[in-house]
Automatic annotation (TrEMBL):
This is PP4R1 phosphatase. SUPFAM superfamilies: ARM repeat. Keywords: Repeat. The keyword Secreted does not apply. It comes from Gymnorhina tibicen.
Length: 282
């Protein structure tokens, strides 16, 4: 029945134009392409019309968001201008489920669009998602490395200042958020210089090592050991020496037994994963 009513609505919908500051001719021209039948694309773009949600399906905007990367891939980056307005409309949708759907796929869309369009059209949306509800932010966080590796080095460095914000969540009991952050930081080590790792990622890693939840701590031990490996291989030896000295000072000589236990676990991970030559370890 719902499908019949949807088809009935589609066949009787004669006015597919959307409100815009463009004249109707300019609006129509900006949406024209030759990859798929134009009427099909027009129907897809009209899914963001609020009246559709009332008459066809309350979740039609979410379906539209879910399909958008596939539509973008089909049309190709040369026809992104057809989808850009729809994407921005969905990214600011009142329903968090719609924004969450886009947050989980923005890294895929970045691959389809390439670095220039990503920097111009996706980065502002990405920045908005970083400040959104946790349900939306987790979509960005789960694919943080996948998205940041597509950006130019200078643009990528700007996000170093924002990584600390992922430690703060709407609900402090949401430990999976922090566990995911630790997982992503392990991957991000390959994208940043030794100095950036020491200055920005190290404090976050140490904070995660003292988390109240053991699952977060275990991933963090792996993060610190990989940090040791990365800094040891860097051309400047002072970073790894300073890091190891801090591990001794902060955890080995900690007045709490839990801190000293953390030191033992980090040492275990470093030795098991061969992050340091044994003479250096000793």
């Amino acid at each position: 029945q719902s499908m019949d009513s949807a088809l009935h609505y589609i066949h009787n919908d004669s006015d597919l134009s959307t409100n815009s500051s463009f004249s109707p001719e300019e609006e129509k021209k900006s949406k024209v392409q030759d990859v798929v039948p134009q009427a099909l694309l027009d129907q897809y773009l009209s899914m963001t019309d609020p009246s559709r949600a009332q008459t066809v399906d309350t979740e039609i905007a979410k379906h539209c968001a879910y399909s958008l990367p596939g539509v973008a891939l089909t049309l190709g980056r040369q026809n992104w201008h057809c989808l850009k307005d729809t994407y921005e409309t969905l990214a600011s949708d009142m329903q968090w489920k719609v924004r969450r759907t886009l947050a989980f796929s923005i890294h895929e869309l970045a691959v389809i669009l390439g670095d220039q369009l990503t920097a111009g059209d996706l980065v502002p949306v990405f920045n908005g998602f970083l400040k959104d509800l946790d349900e939306v932010r987790i979509g960005v966080l789960k694919h943080l490395h996948d998205f940041l590796k597509l950006l130019h080095v200078d643009k990528r460095r700007e996000y170093l200042y924002q990584l600390q914000e992922f430690l703060v969540t709407d609900n402090s009991r949401n430990w999976r958020f922090r566990a995911e952050l630790a997982e992503q930081l392990i991957l991000l080590l390959d994208l940043y210089s030794a100095r950036d790792i020491y200055d920005y990622l190290r404090p976050i890693a140490f904070s995660l090592c003292t988390d109240k939840v053991s699952s977060v701590r275990w991933i963090s031990y792996k993060l610190v050991s990989e940090m040791v490996r990365k800094l040891y291989m860097a051309s400047t030896p002072t970073f790894v020496v300073d890091l190891m000295n801090e591990l001794v000072e902060k955890f080995c000589r900690c007045h709490k037994w839990s801190g000293r236990q953390t030191f033992v676990f980090i040492c275990q991970t470093i030795s098991e994963d061969d992050c340091l030559p044994m003479d250096q370890f000793a």
